Amino acid sequence: MILVINKNASEKEIEDVKEKIHAKGFEVHESRGLNYHILGVVGDTSSIDSGLFQTYNAIDKVIFVQEPYKKSNRLFHPDNSVIKVGKETIGGDKLAIIAGPCSVESEEQIVSIAESVKKSGAGFLRGGAFKPRTSPYSFQGLKKEGLELLKIAREKTGLPIVTEIMSTDFLDDFVEDVDVIQVGARNMQNFELLKQLGKTNKPILLKRGLSATIEELLMSAEYIMAGGNDNVILCERGIRTFEKFTRNTLDLSAIPAIKKLSHLPVIIDPSHAAGLWWMVEPLAKAAIVAGADGLIIEVHNDPKNALVDGAQSIKPDKFEHLMDKLKMLAAVEERAI
How high is the pLDDT of residue 1? Predict the structure, then answer.
């Protein structure tokens, strides 16, 4: 339920409304903009008579939200959300570029790539320390050692680090050491993990599941936000279809769809979508034109010998070339990198 506040309402009248909402056992999500002031009533409001709030002079209109997601709903927050990560932001007029290897392999590797992508204009460093793999016999990542190597790369370059959490086992380490905690596609509906992440104030990069609908993605974001953490970034990384030529099928239509339904930033992962390095550039460019708030791109200095996903990783020189193209496209879209 959305309560639209009268522009002439006093703070005392607004507080009276909030007290009434709390007395009914619901949460209040308040949002103020230049031309609006709304109170979102969070909870099962199906039993509330809309006439209850229409008796208050402070309320202009009562709107019932039909969608099951509330806090991630644009009705609750008409302006686009901008997530702060240290001195960087995700969302807004500046595009966020996250780049780095799929997996951290050594100090020399991660530091070298971090320095390279920063020089090309990336604002964040990605790298997997804990790796979810289809086969239990495949390389699973360096785990805590990988986190330490990411911290070294951050210290040397200043780039905030983005890495994937697999479970709550190392949650304290992630909260302390990681700038943006990534939830992978396979964990998008790991609701117990999402609940725990909701208790933190860390930015969460939430990837769309292998066959998840947009509504299911937003409901997963709702789990995090319902816990009190509004710092959620959504990531489209391709969905599973009948097509076998590419690793997944990149759903570019998800960008405008999510933008219409939600205020949360949207990042595109062209590397995992295609699974082919030569498709990364055209898909990345298409994503920017479609309205994405940024990209997460896999960059490796030696893809042929990469321990994970070398086939979808581009080399640093190709990343530099791509960044030059993206800067021009960003300008066309009245945005910056």
Answer: 87
- Are 50 and 186 part of one and the same domain? no
Q: How far apart are the first and last CA of the chain?
A: 37
For the stretch 9-45, pLDDT in tens is 899 999 999 998 888 888 888 888 888 899 988 877 7
Read off the pLDDT of residues 238-297 as tens digits, 9 standing for 90 and up.
Answer: 999 999 999 999 999 999 999 999 999 999 999 999 999 999 999 999 999 999 999 999
Q: What does the alpha-carbon distance between residue 316 and residue 117 come to, in Å, rounded to a whole number?
A: 7
Please give the Cα distance from 264 to 273 (Å, whole number): 21
Domain of 230, CATH number, reads 3.20.20.70
CA distance 110 to 112: 6
Query: DSSP readout, 124-192?
Result: EEE-BSS---SSTTS----THHHHHHHHHHHHHH---EEEEE-SGGGHHHHHHH-SEEEE-GGGTT-HH
Quick count: other Cβ atoms within 10 Å of Cβ 150?
28
Partnered with residue 32 across adjacent β-strands are 37
This prediction has a pTM of 0.91
Does 97 share its domain with 44?
Answer: no
Total domains in the chain come to 2
* Structural domain for 50, as ranges: 2-63
pLDDT tens per residue, range 73-88: 999 999 999 999 999 9
**How many other C-beta atoms are found inside a 10 Å radius of the C-beta of residue 135?**
7
CB of 226 within 8 A of CB of 269?
no
Whether 258 maps to a domain, the answer reads yes
